[in-house]
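Listing S7. Sequence submitted for prediction.
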Amino acid sequence: MKEALAFIEGHVSFLVVSHVQPDGDAISSTAVVAWLLNKLGKTAVLANESLLPSRLSFLHRFDEIQSLKQTKIEGTYDAVIAVDCADFRRIGELSALFAPNAALLNIDHHPTNDGFGTVNVIQPEAAATVEILYDLIEQAGIALDLDCATAIYTGLLTDTGGFRYSNTSPRVMEIAASLLAVGVSGSELADHLLEKMTIGKLKLLQTALSRLTFSDNLEIGWLYMTKDDLRECGAVPEDLEGIVNYALNVDGVEVGILFKETEAGAVKASLRSAGKADVAAIAQSFGGGGHVRASGCTLEGPISSATALLVEAVRKALV
């Protein structure tokens, strides 16, 4: 933490990045870092390679986060802060904006993080990257306001599945309580982020569930989405979030998988585990990574062959 604060103090302006296809923790962490830098008298350019989830538009400085899919970002940056990126590849095309000798602060909670930063703050025991940032702000001696508290709560809420996943530690609940004391509306955030869905997501879910398949022993369940499904359902990429859980939540299923065909012809796989299998290790064997119970990877080829390959790897892991 002290090294991270010294890193921030040692520079005036920063590029702040999070992982491709950002989730609640990635965007919330970006917002929290922007808030902290402003409090410390620093300036920042906030960026992500992908389109941003519109459901997070209520977050502090969300409108300032530039998407490389929509905006050309000029220049190169000597000081970079990467949040919630399990490895350097997860930064995506934004890495082209780094100066050749750029100093990089890597703040993350994924156990598969390979320590790609000049300074690394990696805490696998943290439920979300925002939990680490909460501690960093405490270390800096800065009092939280409602904007920052809301962003931290959002990251905790989404990465713990509404405080239901096994990563919901006593520390998480202590932090959540302190954020509620600041004035965060936990019920409104839970309703907006966990309960409501667009009509596009509903149609996408209907399509995915019609394809739900199980292994013979019911320990593995998987769904798939083609590259045309989003357009035909009137959905956007963020609508895919959480669909994999419908495979995992079936009684008896140990690993749920969602296969998503990309425009480039590859297949992205999201894996979720009930606890018997280490899906981080499985994902790593295919060049991906993540958490023991929630990970992802990319496979080449059509969905049929990608499905056969990954399901077999999961089957072996469950033996």
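Caption to Listing S7: primary sequence and predicted structure tokens for the chain studied. The first helix runs from residue 2 to 9. The longest strand covers residues 98-108.
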